[in-house]
User: Fold these one by one.
Assistant:
Number 1:
Amino acid sequence: MKIGIDKIGFYVPNLYVDMRELATARGIEPDKLTIGIGQEKMAVAPFTQDTVTLAANAALNLLDEADKKAIDLIIFGTESGIDQSKSAAVYVHELVGLASAARSFEIKQACYGATAGIQMAKGHIALNPDSKVLVLASDIARYGLNSPGESTQGAGAVALVISADPKIMVLEDKSAYHTLDIMDFWRPSYSDTAFVDGKFSNEQYILFFETVWKQYRAKSGLAFKDFEALCFHVPYTKMGLKALKPTLQAEGTKEDQERILENYQKSIQYNKVVGNIYTGSLYLSLLSLLEQTAGLEAGSRIGLFSYGSGAVGEFFTGILQPDYQNHLNSTQHKNHLSARRKISVEEYESIFRQELPIDGSTIELDTSKDLAPICLVGMTENKRQYVNKQRMA
């Protein structure tokens, strides 16, 4: 049975900060951000958006009525969830209008969560071929104002429908994975910003790629010549390149290097203007590759490297399907990104400092400037309140 990605789409907030302006405000040479780490814009979530609404908006743009009836499993990967008990998947289930006969839960392992969800989805479809699974990857990356990690923040969500006989990509059976208990990045429950050992995390990311690539090569017998492109989890767009280049130069032919490096650049175009979205970063990269590369043919094999600090890594692969381009939402995504509004560094800082009450008091939020269909409208009795504006029309 062929199982894989039937649909894929993303949603990001309608606000962003220009990285050159952020660099100037922080007394940093702008090229250190735009060239050094490869970031141009950083998505900023307004106070009326959280990980639930970002994911719900991504799903709302993607699903039709047939999908909603067929989906019987919703898996939500995040490392910036909004509740220690109730899963974000349950909120999305109601906001999007999915069938009640469904399983819904949240999964966490840093930026690896959505990949874990996809692998679980494959098993579910193998047992239930007529079902579909909605996998959501949604995060708001926060390191703190003036922190070393500030320039690798971002916000957004990717939604994927996993099914039998997928229209976009069949996921192959062989994969390689690796777990090691390390402290390269973490966020305790008492903190709303993350902690990171940047140099150590970069080293581990590279080591994990080398490890799982070697394992995958031994399992599959495949080499770089068998791949049209490789996509990476990209907390910043130069990170994947740091891991890829040494191994590619050691093992790949000149032709392999030119092809894979060219397609790598296509795969990071969305990430450059969105920033780090944690669990969704790999899949935003995949979308960028598919929607920015005209020459990718059906039958092409794409490699995917997923890394979640702490740490778990996996390398797996997919085969593009006939006419896959007809099932992408390239124009919608292009228009969505171009319609965003640039805000000043001062506006970004003001948004960053806003906090919801933690004492059970009521707050009502003004959503009139938020163009998203699904928004956070407030809190009452320690409960977040959401609205789907399309139901009010």
Number 2:
Amino acid sequence: MPDVLVIGGGNAALCAALMAREAGASVQLLEASPREWRGGNSQHVRNLRCMHDAPQDVLVEAYTEEEFWQDLLKVTGGRTDEALARLVIRASATCRPWMRRHGVHFQPSLSGALHTARTNAFFMGGGKALVNAYYRSAERLGVQVRYDTPVDRLELQDGRFVAAWSGGQRFAARACVLACGGFESNRDWLREAWGTNARGEHPADNFLIRGTRFNTGTLLRFMMAAGADTIGDPTQAHMVAIDARAPLYDGGICTRIDCVSLGVVLNREAERFYDEGEDFWPKRYAIWGRLVAQQPGQVAWSVIDAKAVGRFMPPVFPGVRADSLPALARGLGLDEARFMHTLQAYNAACRPGSFDHTRLDDCRTEGLSPAKTHWARPIDTPPFFGYALRPGVTFTYLGLKVDHTAAVRFGGRPSPNLFVAGEMMAGNVLGQGYTAGVGMSIGTAFGRIAGTQAAAACGHAHPHLEQDHVAA
């Protein structure tokens, strides 16, 4: 029987397994997917948001704790636990040397990833390389890894973990870390959460899943039924506007449409519905999935002209191209008269300014609702392009409530040997909204805490923890 059982196979699970093993605990990791799809949503990530008080190798200038906190506070609208958020922020400053020891390499911010050179450390080779590096290190250290092993229930005794079950197989351990994601790939649960809207639609029927098909929320549902304390709104998620032609699962980051702030976004009625220039893309891109989810048919179109080309990360699939706006409307299948009315009104409302997509410039609209507050330039230079958008769910925020120890709680009482990390508890920090790279910050911080605490529950102390890694 191993000391620590880790359920899940992504970043948070691997951080937990590695930390527990470094502390001297024997560790077994159960991953639901086959080996070739291992890593959960982490196989699709690109970067980690990092606090730093001075330039650090791939990170320029400084990104202080307070600035990180204010960025998080802004996107969450205050729906966050400040103590846990600051724990994550501080941990983000100290984790990279440890990550490097386990084979993770970093590179400078990509040229098309605007505004992240100061705030985000990019993984060389992306999330797949990160996941593979962690698995290599885990296997070298003696972590037992089992693939194709989805856990469907736990044995619990007065809040204490006893064993996990995968079908008819029982896996006992002295402590356990749950790091098996949210419920974003469970269509029935999404339908239940989102219900039916005023138009009689089931919005969730039109959602695409950016990440893994294996995050079905089975253990989250089990834990809720078992009386574990929960946190979060089931309709809140990291939800991005992605290419409507993306696959149902595992489209990843390459399906994102990044030109939203450079043009206008129209719904099925060919009407604008939100300020496309509200803030920089890394801080605001994750609001657009939810906005599109609230539109008729859960579909929208991002429209740009030639002036925007080369200023954003190009999508994988080419957009609809036309040499005139009426032709573009026809190509997108939108009502031509309504489309032209919307575009003409927008163009007429644009006020001259000094366009600069690297700052919050003074190019705005006047007398238009909704306004476009920055980067507003007339869409008047052919060729014109349009991209159909759908909501792309990355991960859901409903999860298990924790404190700084990552312990699962039952009626406010922490379990002595059951811990949780990653997307399954991210709602403690993310009540709504998102900013680029913070999911990896949460998963890395709480994965390492959970692994350390699980090892300690078995009598193993970690030999070289960073001073601020686990709160006193």
Number 3:
Amino acid sequence: MAETRAIGAAERRARLGVRHLLAGGARAGSAEEVVDGLVALHGTDPASVFLAVGARLSGAPGGLGPVGDVERALYEDRSLVRMHGMRHTVFVLPSGLAAAVQASTTDPAAVRERGTLLKHLAAGSPLDATWLAETERLVLAELAVRGEATGTELGDAVPALRSTYVYGKGTRQEGVQSVASRVLRVLGMEGRIVRGRPQGSWTSSRFRWAPAVPHPALDPAEARAELIRRWLGACGPATEADLKWWTGWKVTEVRGALAAVGAVPVGLDEGTGFVLPDDLEPVPPEGAGPEPWAALLPALDPTPMGWQGRDWYLDPEHRAALFDRSGNIGPTVWWNGRIVGGWAQRPDGEIVHRLLTNVGAEAVRAIGVEAERLAGWVGVVRVTPRFRTPLERELGAGQPPGGTAAQ
């Protein structure tokens, strides 16, 4: 019987630097390369998508820069798509992966979302499934004519979309709510409409809606296998718990997908992990490790949010400063595969950071270079994370109490 391959924390951090396009020589040339390499970017906070790409981009085609390159991919070429996916969360994905995410993850969530909406309508209004189907038909017809429209514009064109219902009737949460956002959410989750270009700048969450390109219908089990194959290629090794957390699937679905791709168990510090069958060679090869690297990653970046077990790249003592109460991570500072601090943007636009551990002079210089690079392309735009964390709040407010913000 073959001995189980052991992969220690140092090797995992080396894999992370290269495969997550953070080590200097591993950076990408386009937004598509970044998203393809990472599988998916968290899209709940629109600014995070642009910041995550910018941290990994060596130079965009035509000198577009991170903002122009992401906007081109999302809204012109449509090579990237923003949609609901894993854990009922909005992600930006390669368009070629959208069908697998839809079949493996979004379709079951959409069924629950539609059922919940109908339940709420039945309890708090005279509106029913027939009304909902007709309203959806009118919305889709309007979008087919317009090409894209905001929720407000659709409400003006389809008055039924301005209907209301009583939410939480008879409870402390009782209140009148509009159906518009719920109806558009269901249509989006079912892959019938898609978020288009937002109103305002790249930090805005007020999206226009557009007709979606239909996804090919895939077998859910095959779709889960495809998603796991892609994810292990970018993030392996990972434990069963990591995979269950990231996908939001049942344990049986995770195990079925691991079996379908022939995943191989390996020994990790926290227990058994899994890699693809062709990914057992040491990474990097002897004497060929990546050069030391630094990075400033945004809130909800896919690297710190890639695994449920994070002790191999995050000191547990730093969690309280870097996460909010719901488990969302704020902006982080990285050195050689570890989170070593956090950063924020002050109201005057200045990018500041604080190191939570002693990293040495070389790291301080490299982190400073990354901070300058970030400030250079963000420019006059002000970026405030949607989910704010203790350290980010302190730094963003100005001189933080109990410490000195590193410039």
